[in-house]
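Input/output pair, single chain:
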Amino acid sequence: MIVEKEIKAPNGIMMIFVLLFAQAATIALVVAVAKAGPVFAILSILLAAVVFVCWFGLFMVNPKEGKVLQLFGKYVGTVHEPGLRWANPFYSKSPVSLRVRNFESGRLKVNDKNGNPIEIAAVVVWEVVDTAEAVFQVDDYEDFVSIQSEAALRNLATSYSYDNHEDEEVALRSNPVEISAALRNEVQDRLEKAGVKVIESRISHLAYAPEIANAMLRRQQAMAIIAARKKVVEGAVGMVEMALHHLSDREIVELDSERKAAMVSNLLVVLCSDEAAQPVVNTGSLY
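Output:
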């Protein structure tokens, strides 16, 4: 695996003055040795040509950018320091942006953990942290990010259910923080070899597929009603138990089994009813 190696390139402005001085000196040398003989003339012309070629070693490094230097296919290093720089004119200089970028996937149609077809999309915020891996380990790192992010999103969607009213199970809709963390880890594992760091990833769109949306909406409503009823019944039973316990401890009234059953029934009706209960006054005896 090729790992990034940062190198320092000479200041380009300083090299401009050096090359100007060298160019002027070689021109003066050519003129001076023109009458000294052909050998000296050829050597001075070659020297002038070398100085001229050195001008092509100047290059610009923008902020948050790295220049990957190669010499005849061999990786030499990466220059990160911004400004006008100079390096061997025979180096090829490939720019790699180090800025933070984001990628938004299209709406993917996949099946969740329970086999329900859903539509899902995500936003991935990423940046290049290793220019050598980004350039040499993969063919096109930007295309690699998009394809692997969508693959990770598909895998995540099949690992979790769309929604679940059980508190102990993580679901796509009910647990956005846990799902975002899981998606980030999934994408990062796939992009590690490309020298890319995933800063953030989150789901931007989540819905049931149109063909089952109405049916699943009714199912969600039914499950929500059942869950709410369960909580109401649990609370009502606790309140009835507390009422019977206080009545017994304070010796307010003595209740036999039949009266307790009637009282429990009345309290549950009052506490669990959707509408206000209508009291019925009994002026006679229970027996």
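The chain has three domains: 12-95, 101-208, 213-272. The beta strands are 58-61, 65-71, 74-79, 83-86, 92-97, 101-104, 108-111, 117-128, 196-208.
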